[in-house]
Amino acid sequence: MKNILEGIEKSARLFPKNIAVSDVSSKLSYEMLIKNSKKIAVSFKENAWRKKPIAILMDKSVKLATSMLAVLYSGNFYTVLDPEMPKDRMLKIFETLEPVAVLTNDKYKDLALELGNTDIFYYENAINEEIDEEYLYNIRRAMTDSETMYILYTSGSTGNPKGTVISHKAAISYTDWVLENFDINEKTIWGSQTPFYFSMSVTDLFGGLRSGGCLCIIPKKMFSFPLKLVEYMNENKINTIYWVPSALSLVAKWDTFSYDKPMYLKKILFAGEVMPNKQLNYWRRAYPDAYFANLFGPTETTDICTWYHVDKEFKDEETLPIGKPCNNCFVLILDEDLKEADKGELYVGGSFLADGYYNNPEKTKASFVQNPLNKAYPEILYKTGDLVSYNEYGQLIYLGRKDFQIKHMGYRIELGEIEANMSAMEKMNSCACIYNETEDKIVLIYEGRIKKDAVMEHAKKKLPPYMHPNVLVKVKAMPVNANGKIDRVYLKNNYNLMED
Amino acid sequence: MNIEKVIEVLNEVKPGVDFSKENDLVERHILSSMEIVMLVSELSEEFDVDIPLPEVVPENFYSAQTIAKLIERMEDED
């Protein structure tokens, strides 16, 4: 296989009538998904673009999934844009991406026009094209698996989005692992939570489409109304989920399972943030026989590089391991002298690796580096910036971001360790720890109906004195970024204005 | 009517929105799922009512008006 589409075409041959993707208002079989994508691809024929970026501006839907495949059929690569992202951020992405075209629908016509001088293609028109098999064959014949499949933008620490370049080869290798490791097959019905512009969606969207199973898109608003969410999951017989921990935690916070439960659920996978055991235990009590796995990795390794099958009990305040490398993935822990160590920065190698950052050679060079232990031939590793160590069972433990490691009162401290301990507190909905360098203070920002002295009391019980927060800020709602993760950059600059 | 107080609570959870005019909080994703959690907890505290999960449905959260109606109903049930 050299193109991810071949995996989807295989599903279409084996299970043509199976539903491939569904959303709240439509469903599409494999047969129709392939047909519709091919039709749309033909609308790009006249321009004869090859290996060019095409931006897609649409809500998460069956049509968006179809459009993504269409761009691949045309021999180009896509970037999915979130229509709800601020226009300024979109323009910043356009500055580095320089897309040759925007594929959108009538709903976002005005927005697409505001984005500048690119050709605009409308789904409503493109879907009326006639399939041209010869054109599609020639494109496929000429391509290789090292061609780019998509560019995924993540927020850079400087505030400028970085576009991670993922090849067909990386996405194929990664989804090979997903299919095999989690036994994903034509019976799998994914309940899709993560946006298609977020790396986690590669797992359920392409893992799903390669298996002959179904990707059932759960409308975002359902996560605000947990009983509706459960109802939707049951109507669609969702049996597998791969969500961010905050989505799982929401269900736990509402104590949803006292009222109703998704009854078909068998596999519960999560990634993207640290999963607090307190909330995970709520799920595990409700699903004692389900399969739970913690997945870990950056966008730069397509989605994931290590994983842990949750196979033993954990106390609420314990940290869940991130386990071991995925099959076909290789990890190294290096200390500051670039020597192998039991604790240090995580480096990843293997086929899941991205090719770098789009139009950004400096950032690429800084993060995609030669394996310092290999002097014999070129071998690129991704330097994750994540600090990890091994536990007594030889499993990897995530300690925190390298940039979150601080030195305070002479001690090296992981802010993540403080967070893990504090988030186990009763009634603690969410918390984040930042470090104010100028005042040398550890600041804990938290959300939950708990008095500050109770928070300090808990800190004293769980943490050594040098790790106690120096400042506590109680907020009404934790700020989150576009991916739904806690917005630490915002917190760092604004925490003193946020007191509830 | 509780409507002013409801708008006040809404603005505490999400400043910068004119909740007296918005009547499609759900479909327009004006409140995130986390903000709905906060809102329900703040409303329970402010009005001293219990809002059980079965009442946390889109119809009750379309606008400040529908939220005020929900509160009234919950107060009557107390």
Automatic annotation (TrEMBL), chain A:
Stated name of the protein: Amino acid adenylation domain-containing protein
PROSITE patterns with a match to the protein in the record: AMP_BINDING
Top-level taxon in the UniProt lineage: Bacteria
Pfam (any one): AMP-binding
A GO cellular component entry from the record: cytoplasm
Species of the source: Acetitomaculum ruminis DSM 5522
Family annotation (SUPFAM superfamilies): Acetyl-CoA synthetase-like (SSF56801)
UniProt-listed InterPro entries: AA_adenyl_dom, AMP-bd_C_sf, AMP-binding_CS, AMP-dep_synth/lig_dom, ANL_N_sf
Residue ranges annotated for the AMP-dependent synthetase/ligase domain, each copy included: 9-358
GO molecular function: phosphopantetheine binding
Gene3D superfamilies in UniProt: 3.30.300.30, N-terminal domain of ligase-like
GO terms under biological process: amino acid activation for nonribosomal peptide biosynthetic process; secondary metabolite biosynthetic process
PANTHER family per the UniProt record, alphabetical: FATTY ACID SYNTHASE (PTHR45527:SF1), NONRIBOSOMAL PEPTIDE SYNTHETASE (PTHR45527)
From TrEMBL, chain B:
Domain spans labelled Carrier: 1-78
PROSITE patterns tied to this protein: CARRIER
Protein name: Carrier domain-containing protein
